User: What shape does this take?
Amino acid sequence: MTGSEPRSGAGAVSARSRGFRPGVLVLTAAAVLAAGWLAVDFLDRPGVEVARIPEGGRMPRAVIDPAGTVHTIYFEGVMSGGDLLHVSRAAGGSGWTDPVRVNSDRRSAIGMGPMDGGHVALDGAGRLHAVWFQTNPARIYYARSVPGGAAFEPQRTLWQADHRIEAAPSVAAGGDGGVYVFWHAGAGQDADRAVYMTASDDGGDTFDTARRVSKAGEGACGCCNLAALAGGSGTVHVSYRSARENVRRDQRLLVSEDAGRTFEDRPIDEWEIGACPVTTTTLSTAPDVVRVAWETDGRVFYAPVDRLDAPVEPDGEIRFRRKNPVVAVNSRGDTLLAWGDGSGLRAGGTLHWRLFDAGGHPLGEQGSDTSVPSGSAPWAIVKPDDSFLLLF
Assistant: This one.
């Protein structure tokens, strides 16, 4: 595992969060210019805006459209049953719209912890695709936004079974009408579980029959979520935690280069543990690069999917379990890694984040006293100006 200490005073936060005063910034920049390359490094760092979702919300998932509008869905309700709500924020704005319920059947979403809630994707036509689940009996639900609006069509059941599932599905959408929904399930032990997919080639009008896409024998860790991402030219990535022999709970990556027709199942990181660790994982893409983030034994990492042998880990004292990592990468390859630092399976912990350049070298860090709500996790996206938005 790799990582390096950040430069002293390299807190890469937005001007607003630094208490921006124009005169002070000009003097600081002028002084730094005398240091040559240090000025380029300082001024070239992307900003990070940290924002709270509407009060009472947990487990945000967000995407941003070409106009810069942020679309966020989040869970609200009790652990055993609640609703998914959609809000948006215009480019340059700071306030959220009034929430719109995504699920047409009230209280049909599960919100035990960060591995639950809903997932959302944005397609090339500007439509939102959302997925969520009921645990027992197992149901995978789907809804998409109406054309040109923020409302959602009535929810549909994409898959059902008599046994239970304990972690949310994930959805990915490509620019060619492809919509891919993934989840893991199985009636027996974790070693007998598998990752399944149902896909649409008409923008969500219809979906094909669900089928197993993970490697036989790898299993799937029951309470660990998975993450999916679709790119151009039919590329699809899925990060999930396996459960081979019920103890080999390794992070793995499914990769398809043919729009989900076939998948290669690759190892990311090993973890031998005899019980489900209840972890989350995320993926992010920019032109020509995809990043994956995961947890192993209380430590968080990210890596380019084409360099899984070169993970990056934020340095610093680990006083509590680092958990629920989220990664976002901009067009320059700058990468934001955020996580919660705390004990317990449902604890959101204290929010931390760090910036890295395209080569994985730290640009700065920000740890704060901000607490992530219990049963929640942070989320990060890239804004059109290559700065980052970190939601919690």
About this structure: Residues 56-321 form a domain with the Neuraminidase fold (CATH 2.120.10.10).
